[in-house]
Amino acid sequence: MFTLAQIILMTLLMLFIAYDLYHTQIFVYGRAVFCGLLAGIIMNNVTLGLLIGGTMELMSLGVGGYGGSSVPNYNIGTIVGVAFAVSTNKGIDAALAVGIPVAALGVQLDVLGKMAGSFFYHKALKAVDSLQLKKMYHWILLGTIPRVAFAGLVVLLAMTAGATAIQTILNALPAFITSGLNIAGGVLPAVGFAILLRYMPLKKHYIFVILGFILTSYLSLPMIAVALLGFIIAVTIYNKNEENSKQVSAADTQGGDDYDE
Amino acid sequence: MSNKITRKTLNKSRNRWMTTAQICFNYETMQSASVVYALGPSLEEIHRNDDEALKESLKSGFRFFNTQPWMGNVILSSSLAIEEEGGRASIEAASAIRTSLMGPFAGLGDSLFFVLPKTVFGAIAAYMAIEGNPVGVGLCAIIGVVMVVIRYNLWNIGYKQGVKFITSSQSKLTSLTDAASVMGLIVVGALIASNVKLSTPISFTVGESVTAVQDVLNKILPNLLPVAATAITYWALGKKKMTSARIVWIIIAISIVAAYFKIFG
User: Fold this and answer.
1) Could you read off the pLDDT of B219-252 as tens digits, one per residue?
2) CB pairs under 8 A between A and B
3) Burial zone of A259 (CB within 10 Å; 0-12 exposed, 13-18 middle, 19+ buried)
């Protein structure tokens, strides 16, 4: 079903993406699309790869592990999804059926990885007492294994052991499951936006959410236009904030003068 | 007595942080081990003649630390500048700088570098990709590389200006965070309308006319169901014991049940 080269390259891609996700953080913008593009190149169907990556990216918008929280990993979802979409010839339906559950499992994977990190942390901390710095650095570096290697392992296992199994499952899947996962694909972006709103000053600035909603829902403005309009408002608010804080500090100085007299 | 950090070692610390930030992440102290890995070479140089001071310094580095990794560049380099200046006596001061700045800087970095641009650029790249166009994701990659240059400079700013910069522009940072989150909220409002998709195929037959429920909903408010789904998710996230992971599974389950009964689709 998969060639050895495909399995190796897809696993390496996953390892690279997982390392970049946590540590180097260079491909932070549109990462799922990036996964889709590269996985598409490896699986020799770039258009399908882009379609799946784009769809997964829309689900992942706003989903971020802020403050050390664990979130679904749509990168694993994309890579595994592209692999099975191409090999089963079932296109995006297969990608969603396999990719969404795998992405959701990414949360448990992340939690496991962070728990395992404690082991390496304590080993490194212990090396400080005897000032064995080389040993300390090595344990810290080894601490990347749980989070990064787990992700690679999922891709490796799914593509080797799971290949025939997933094909059988996909064939046996009743129609309402696939259409249910399609519905879920439409609703899941809400999770990302809800997380974002929880982290943003919604109570103070809720009217701006409504503004954004009107711009798209009623006026059908494209995203770039909305972003630019948002930029204009943001600059205005920044200037107003700065003016206010200057007035406050000016008042403070004046108060200081009074005391001097 | 403290020693100076050579340029080479300082760069080594920066490069280590930029390639291994968050390595060995754990629930107890989060990013602490990666802080030690990055600052280690510089701390070794500062406390070259004092093993006890080095131990003390490394142990303070192993304390809880968690911030937006890019803003970590400013925080870590300014804590190094302080420790270089005051030696062993300033280990606690350097540690306090890290602890007091990680919170506010995480908020600023998340809204400035992650939340807003990730959402905007991600949406653009995604829409282009769905039409088979890889230009958007290429653009994203270029922006990511530009950010690397900015992150390099953040490290130098932190080291050169140290605490002076951070405290003097505190009000500017607050204004900036506030303004950036307004832009973010507008974009999120727009994205809820365009990205969350939910509709119903239910229809009623009254006499001879067939009324689709979706048409009625559209007249009340376009995208009513997506808005409702987002609002419910937002409300649910505020509940105790509710995590984003559980919500994802709940949504998948509800969607499959709804597909079976043809409530949504």
Assistant:
1) 889 999 999 999 999 999 899 888 777 888 899 8
2) 393
3) exposed
